[in-house]
Amino acid sequence: MEKYKYKSGFQKGKFSRVCPGIGMVTLDDKITDEIAKAFVDGGIKDVFELVIKEPKAISVKPKKAIKPKPNGKEKGTDGDNTVV
Amino acid sequence: MPVLVNFSSIAADSTQAGNPAGARRVMRALAKSFTGGWPIKADITAGEITVAPRITAGSFAIYEVPANTIDASDELLGEPGYQNWKQGIEFQMAGLSKQLQAELAKDINAGSVFLVELNDDQFVVVGTSQKPIFLKNSGKIGKKGSEQRGKTLKGDEEGYMWGLTPLSSTIASAITFIALP
Asked: Is the CB of residue B56 less than 8 Å away from at least one CB of chain A?
């Protein structure tokens, strides 16, 4: 399991439960996310809980300042734009 | 006086739905391990048991038994005015191990409540904590080869106010069973 985990204090491997839509399963380390989700979606919320991951801190690199060109003119902007 | 309820129309011919007989597993708990009566009449709503067993989590054991050997039954007994239900269970356990012998020794003078997991995914309850089923077992070693070496377990009781009654699927999911080794 990656997305779900056993609730704290649950004794893995000792018990079985009827998973809604799946049937009898042993609650041990072999349980998959799919089965854990079926339990939770089926209203059985005393065994598994969703793993809430801490959001990663977003590192923002400061952008380099754009240096203006020496003449202050950009290519193609000078001159007459009139179409003949 | 009970409220008189007239009959309802019902389609009971299983049209376009499978109707498999038989069961997969037997689950049981010692009647004395219940903290209150279960099931009681008030636990039955619209033909199914909708209240969780009044028992400590992990008190129901699971028996996996040879295929096609489980049966549960009920029968309405008595003359009009005196009628009541009889409930019964029968299954086999294969082998002659010390674990099996030790397990069945727990049946002596001790009644149980049974859950039977049917082949259509329903669970039915056999017996109650107040009127449990006392299993009797008989065994044989077989004479040779493929003869059935093991135990046959049977039990029934009468005097119930209902027959075999399914357990609501929500309640079935809420029961914690002792995992198989």
From this structure: no
At a CB cut-off of 8 Å and minimum separation 6, what does B93 contact?
B63, B65, B66, B100, B104, B150, B151, B153
B45 touches chain A (CB under 8 A): no
Tell whether ipTM is more than 0.90: no
Cβ(B149)–Cβ(B95) under 8 Å?
A: yes
Contacts of B174 in chain A (CB under 8 A): 44
The pLDDT tens digits of the residues spanning B71-125 come to 999 999 999 999 999 999 999 999 999 999 999 999 999 999 999 999 999 999 9
Bridge partners of B25? Answer: B64, B117
Structure tokens at B74: 């009920």
**B126: nearest Cα among B96, B154, B181, B164:** B164
Query: The pTM is what?
Result: 0.85
- Label residues A35-44 b or e (16+ Cβ within 10 Å = b): bbbbbbebeb
Give the nearest partner residue to B173 out of A14, A15, A17, using CB atoms: A17
How far apart are alpha carbons A11 and B94 in whole angstroms? Answer: 30
